[in-house]
Amino acid sequence: MKTLFTEDPAAGLNPSSEMEEELDDLEVVRTKRFTFKPMDVEEAILQMNMIGHNFFVFSNIDNQEVNVVYKRNDGKYGLIEKTEVGSY
User: Fold this and answer.
1) Where are the annotated segments for Disordered (predicted)?
2) Which site among 7, 19, 56, 79 is 20 to 30 Å from 73 CA-CA?
């Protein structure tokens, strides 16, 4: 198990050198920009399967929000919707 923080009684919790190395590796190497075609969840799943990805970002026509559909490990599908902080 990796330790991300080391405990220093004088300074509290500090990032370990291993965590600092991992953070250095978190570099964005490509950015994509595109417009979202409004669609329902079913169409988004079809689009995701058609392009062979395991997730798909889309503009949900039912709630006018940007949502994500994804394929779960059990072969079923999930939907990620935005929520306000504190409301689950």
Assistant:
1) 1-22
2) 19
Instruction: Enumerate domains of the chain plus CATH numbers.
Output: 5-80 (3.30.505.50)
Per-position DSSP letters for 2-25, written without gaps between them: ---EEEETTTEEEE-HHHHHHHHT
CA nearest neighbour of 14 among 22, 2, 6, 3: 6
The Cα 61–Cα 67 span in angstroms is: 10
Give me the tens of pLDDT residue by residue for the chain, a chain 88 residues long. Answer: 455 555 555 555 565 667 666 777 889 999 999 898 899 999 999 999 999 999 999 999 999 999 999 999 999 999 999 988 876 6
